[in-house]
Specification:
Elements: H1 2-23, E1 28-42, E2 48-49, E3 59-60, E4 65-66, E5 72-80, E6 85-94, E7 104-113, E8 118-126, H2 149-152, E9 159-171, E10 174-189, E11 192-208, E12 211-226, H3 227-242, H4 247-259, E13 265-276, E14 281-292, E15 299-308, E16 313-324, H5 338-358, E17 362-374, E18 377-388, E19 408-419
Antiparallel strand pairs: 1-4, 1-5, 1-19, 2-3, 5-6, 6-7, 7-8, 8-9, 9-10, 10-11, 11-12, 12-13, 13-14, 14-15, 15-16, 16-17, 17-18, 18-19
Helix pairs in contact: 3-4, 3-5
């Protein structure tokens, strides 16, 4: 896939340069940017609330008030070479996996507008899985301080290295947009990496007046290389080796190794979304189904947000839910001998602990106020009450020994979003 994409990118670039030469005019450049300065307080002092799975720390046990989860700065340079050819590069600075704030390339692609209705982009583009894929990092473009973690933490990767194709067509009173993508992606975690190859997806968006409807399906082949899951894999492998003389136990170990593998994880995401915005008020919703065959559990997430506009003030309410279908591994006796029985218990305990940490279930109620107090700038105040499911660790991180599954957590956020 990657060599093919590279050759295609080179060919398109050559065509783009030829088009520019034929146009006999200088490219038109435009620079724009966005940013958020936000502080978050968490009532939970035994775990951290973070903005994504790639952040090493946040509000809670690490800092009483933290700027890390939501603060970011982005810049975008666009170039138009001709009516058919353009390019864009977007850099974003936010807290990275290593606690640095080095900018990373979020977008870098070349676009060919083949016809008024059909466009092809090659390079790094937004991963079009979510309703807010193009704007999830641009706080000013969204009503809430952040997209609901109950949806957007299911698949935290934001960009795709490959190609996407968009076809837009008006049919009488409604507009239809079909978007397809293919490629791969890789991102750094605080304790390792997550990557996917052979990624592809298809989404259809229908706009009828003030109503927008979206349906999407995506497929990924995921690999996680991180400390916690690597330790678990090593433990299962060691147990399998020790149990080799006992066929029935060795077979059970092989089943565990396959069931909780962290490579070649076939993953599918079905996404539904809608938005209705007649102007004075709005309501939107989104739902996801995440299916996989791995240590990651099948998961369902959804959210609903609504608000009313009073001049420059927009109070809003939201509710979100994520439910992971976690079935704990049952204990089993290995041979009746203490060493192998103890090893079997340790393996099962490690699996169940990993399932709890990676596949949290929770629900969050949100109350917020947005104030567009000056041009291209908005102040947001938001309170979230998160109820973690009984026996679950939720979508937090940096758990301490004192953290209690099933906790109730209050988050207070103050954010200033801007675009320029």
């Amino acid at each position: 896939m990657q060599p093919t994409i590279t050759r295609l990118a080179v060919a398109l670039s050559a065509c783009g340069l030829l088009s520019v030469a034929q146009a006999q005019s200088a490219p038109e450049f435009k620079f724009s940017g966005f940013g958020t300065v936000a502080a978050v307080h968490s009532s939970e002092d035994q775990a951290d609330f973070v903005g994504s799975a790639f952040q090493p720390k946040g509000a809670g046990v690490s800092d009483d008030w933290s700027f890390a989860p939501d603060t970011k700065l982005g810049g975008q340079l666009s170039a138009v070479f001709s009516p058919s050819w353009s390019a864009v590069v977007q850099l974003v600075s936010q807290q990275n996996h290593d606690n640095s704030w080095r900018p990373h390339v979020e977008w870098a692609n070349l676009k060919w507008q083949a016809t008024p209705e059909l466009a092809l982009r090659v390079g790094r583009t937004a991963l079009p899985v979510f309703q807010l894929s193009e704007t999830r990092l641009v706080g000013y473009a969204n009503t809430m301080v952040r997209p609901a973690p109950e949806i957007y933490r299911i698949l935290p990767v934001t960009s795709n290295d490959g190609a996407d194709l968009a076809w837009r067509r008006d049919f009488g009173s409604f507009k239809n947009t079909v978007q397809a993508f293919a490629g791969r992606t890789k991102a750094d975690l605080p304790t390792g990496t997550i990557e996917s190859d052979r990624s592809w997806g298809l989404a259809d968006t229908v706009e009828i007046g003030d109503l927008s409807l979206r349906l999407g399906y995506s497929s990924f082949n995921v690999k996680i290389d991180a400390d916690g899951v690597n330790t678990l894999n090593a433990g299962i492998a060691a147990f399998g080796s020790a149990a080799a003389p006992i066929p029935s136990v060795a077979a059970r170990a092989a089943v565990l190794a396959d069931r909780y593998r962290t490579e070649d994880m076939a993953t599918r995401v079905l996404a539904l979304g809608f938005s209705y915005d007649p102007g004075q008020w709005f309501v939107s919703g989104e739902a996801m189904r995440f299916d996989t065959e791995s240590v990651l559990a099948d998961t369902t997430g959804w959210q609903l947000v609504g608000g009313w506009r009073f001049g420059t003030l927009t109070p809003y309410l939201g509710y979100a839910r994520i439910k992971a279908d976690v079935n704990e591994e049952a204990a089993f006796a290995a041979t009746g001998s203490a060493p192998l029985d103890g090893a079997a218990a340790a393996v099962v305990g490690g699996i169940n602990r990993t399932l709890q940490v990676l596949n949290g279930s929770q629900k969050t109620a949100t109350v917020g106020l947005r104030w567009d107090f000056m041009r291209n700038t908005a102040l947001k105040l938001q309170w979230d009450r998160t109820n973690v499911d009984k026996g679950s660790y939720g979508r937090f991180t940096n758990y301490q020994p004192g953290f209690e599954p099933g906790a109730k957590v209050d988050l207070f956020s103050v954010a200033v979003d801007f675009v320029f």
